[in-house]
């Protein structure tokens, strides 16, 4: 049984403020209808759509998944919908350029581990009151004929599409907008019709797409769908947490990696992370903010507590304690990790750039050069800044890239 959902401590009728029940909610359209259904105990079918454009679910997704688990525990039907069709179009939301189009095989490969990851939060087991389930939107979108698409498109205007901020920005900057991108919100909207849902949840950046579903469901089934948006969590670089930006904290990250990523956050995100990513209540978060503001609490100590809370949620208290000890050893005492992975090579001499790429610490040679030139690479604790350096491999040599990546080089 998943253990990390924020459990409801009272019935919906006892909650004066929905934010006590569903942490991170920003807007509900229409809120009166949702509250009426919730407090009456009317069973709702709700879903979150995820395009598997990468293999990882991150703790930004988990803000929404944790709220879904609360609703699941209250007796509502939860669907995690994989956009194996819509991911082939590419959601233009928040993008200044067109997303690269993925193949169906690439999308399904990315989706393989999603159920296991989401299962850390949602309950897919038969023991659940109503087990969460997974669906794929290619099941119905692949069956649409061109005439069907024309009829769906007739419910929207070009002016509506151009009101979207990313399209408006691209027009002003003279960058292209491709016609297929207009179809994305229409296809996502049809998901609501196909599944006959009562509620769709998503980030605030998905409001336009989710309202498209509300429009289609009303027009085609005379049914009013509720749309619920959630706060967007910032990633490790301060931008919206996104697989595209490479700034995510994945729910499957190792305890040490998860702990280290949390510790790398800006101090101004500590309170938001406590509120959105842990089970700590609002009163505790506000009290901590005051202590940080007055200097009574050091940001490093607050982040260590935050990191331990998050690792405990996704792993265990034992794992969190060990991750904290390892972090202290590496970053405060400047020692190497207790366990370091090994990489064996038959080459006696390699360029430093090649080594960094080969061991998986850089995505490309240009990425490796950048890391070297910025001083992020060490060999046997000596900083290496020459991207053109040729290294003679010595058995047992320790390569460090960044603060958390270590490997022992073996010559065979």
Describe the structure.
Residues 339-406 form the Tyrosine--tRNA ligase SYY-like C-terminal domain. Belongs to the class-I aminoacyl-tRNA synthetase family. Its EC number is 6.1.1.1. It comes from Candidatus Kerfeldbacteria bacterium CG15_BIG_FIL_POST_REV_8_21_14_020_45_12. The protein is of the alpha/beta class. It folds into three domains: 12-230, 3-Layer(aba) Sandwich (Rossmann fold); 255-332, Tyrosyl-Transfer RNA Synthetase (Orthogonal Bundle); 341-411, Structural Genomics Hypothetical 15.5 Kd Protein In mrcA-pckA Intergenic Region, Chain A, CATH 3.10.290. 44% of the residues lie in helices and 14% in strands. The chain is built from 19 helices and 13 strands. The strands form three sheets. Strands 1-6-5-2-3-4 form a six-stranded mixed sheet, sandwiched between helices. Strands 7-13-12-9-10 form a five-stranded mixed sheet. The longest helix is centred in the middle third of the chain and has 17 residues, at 179-195. It is globular, with a radius of gyration of 24 Å. The model is unreliable at 5-10 (pLDDT under 50).
């Amino acid at each position: 049984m998943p253990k990390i959902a924020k459990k409801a401590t009272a019935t919906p009728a006892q909650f004066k403020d929905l934010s006590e029940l569903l942490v991170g909610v920003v807007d509900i359209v229409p809120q009166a209808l949702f509250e009426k259904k919730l407090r009456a105990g009317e069973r709702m079918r709700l879903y979150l759509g995820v395009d598997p454009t990468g293999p990882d679910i991150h703790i930004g997704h988990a803000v929404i998944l944790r709220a879904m688990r609360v609703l699941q525990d209250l007796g509502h039907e939860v669907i995690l919908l994989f956009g194996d069709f819509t991911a082939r179009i590419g959601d233009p939301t928040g993008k200044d350029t067109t997303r690269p189009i993925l193949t169906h095989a690439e999308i399904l490969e990315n989706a393989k581990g999603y159920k296991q990851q989401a299962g850390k939060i949602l309950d897919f087991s038969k023991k659940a009151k109503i087990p969460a389930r997974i669906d794929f939107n290619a099941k119905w979108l692949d069956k649409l004929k061109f005439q069907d698409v024309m009829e769906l498109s007739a419910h929207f205007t070009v002016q509506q599409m151009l009101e979207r901020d990313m399209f408006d920005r691209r027009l002003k900057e003279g960058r292209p907008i491709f016609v297929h991108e207009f179809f994305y919100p229409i296809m996502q909207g049809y998901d609501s019709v196909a599944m006959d849902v009562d509620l769709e949840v998503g980030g605030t950046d998905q409001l336009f797409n989710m309202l498209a579903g509300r429009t289609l469901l009303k027009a085609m089934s005379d049914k009013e769908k509720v749309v619920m948006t959630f706060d967007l969590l910032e990633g490790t670089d301060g931008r919206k947490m996104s697989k595209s930006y490479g700034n995510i904290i994945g729910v499957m990250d190792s305890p040490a990696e998860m702990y280290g990523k949390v510790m790398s956050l800006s101090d101004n995100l500590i309170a938001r992370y406590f509120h959105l990513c842990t089970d700590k209540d609002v009163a505790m978060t506000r009290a901590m903010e005051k202590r940080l503001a007055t200097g009574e609490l050091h940001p490093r100590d607050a982040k260590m507590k935050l990191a331990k809370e998050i690792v405990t949620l996704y792993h265990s208290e034992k794992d969190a304690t060990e991750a904290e000890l390892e972090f202290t050893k590496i970053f405060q005492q400047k020692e190497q990790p207790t366990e370091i992975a090994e990489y064996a090579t038959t080459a006696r001499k390699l360029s430093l750039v090649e080594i960094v790429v080969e061991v998986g610490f850089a995505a490309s040679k240009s990425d490796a050069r950048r890391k070297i030139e910025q001083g992020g690479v060490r060999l046997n604790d000596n900083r290496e800044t020459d991207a053109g350096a040729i290294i003679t491999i010595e058995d047992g040599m320790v390569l460090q890239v960044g603060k958390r990546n270590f490997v022992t080089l073996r010559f065979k």
